[in-house]
Amino acid sequence: MMQFNEKKMNKAICIFTNFWDAKQLSIDGSLLLSSKNQLCKLNFISENNKPVNFSLNSIALSLPENVRVLNFKNIACFNPTYKLLSNYKTNKDWVEYRSEYIKLLKERKQSIQDWANGLIDEHIYFMCCWENTSKGANCHRRILYEEFSKSKFMKNKIISIYRSGGK
After folding, report:
1. Which of 24, 26, 75, 148 could form a disulfide with 154 if both were Cys (CB 3.0 to 4.6 A apart)?
2. pLDDT of the residue at 34
3. In DSSP terms, which residues pair with 34 in a beta bridge?
4. Total Cβ atoms within 10 A of residue 108
5. Is 167 inside any structural domain?
6. Which residues, in sequence order, are bridge partners of residue 129?
7. Which DSSP state fits 165?
8. DSSP string of 28-81?
9. Within a domain: 35
10. Mean pLDDT for each 10-residue chunk of the chain (167 residues)?
């Protein structure tokens, strides 16, 4: 349960990170956060090796082999398209990629709102893809986090936490 000053949070929690960081956090069982001189501990509760208060979600087109056993749920409305990803790998134009990904999110607005309206308060949603951004790598996960952070609709639904995925 996430609490600040003993108040119940009436929002879902989205942790934007990579697959390996999410896997490790779920094994560790908790995450300490500090914000505005307040300390918060998120506990990841499992029973019989199944998540209870959290879910592992992929926002990528594919999963790494070594995390497939964890049953990540794919949230397709956040995936880049194969064409978009392919173009970026060819031309390395991050500005174009960013612009096209944001355009894609706008096209998927209804699906994204439907997803957000189905979120459970205080449930922790890991939003995962491949990139470790600790050394400056570009990633659509960062774009999604930034867009969520700017959206009044999303700020009313979730608490967003960004992690680079590095050690």
Report:
1. 148
2. 85
3. 39
4. 16
5. no
6. 18
7. S
8. H-EEEEEETTEEEEEE--EETTEESSEEEEE-SSS--GGGGGG-PEE-GGGSPP
9. yes
10. 52 96 94 86 91 95 84 95 97 98 98 98 97 95 98 96 91
Distance (Å, whole) CA 152 – CA 94: 26
Residue 58 domain-assigned? yes
**Domain of 29?**
3-162
Q: What local confidence, expressed as pLDDT, does residue 24 receive?
A: 93
Residue 93 counted as domain residue: yes
b/e sequence 57-78, b meaning 16+ C-beta within 10 Å = bbbbeebeeebeebebeebebb
Q: Is 3 helix (H, G, I), strand (E, B) or coil?
A: strand
Q: Helix, strand or coil for residue 24? A: helix
Which of 53, 48, 137 shows the shortest CA–CA distance to 89? 137
Supply angle C-alpha 97, 103, 109, rounded to 5: 135
Number of domains making up the chain: 1
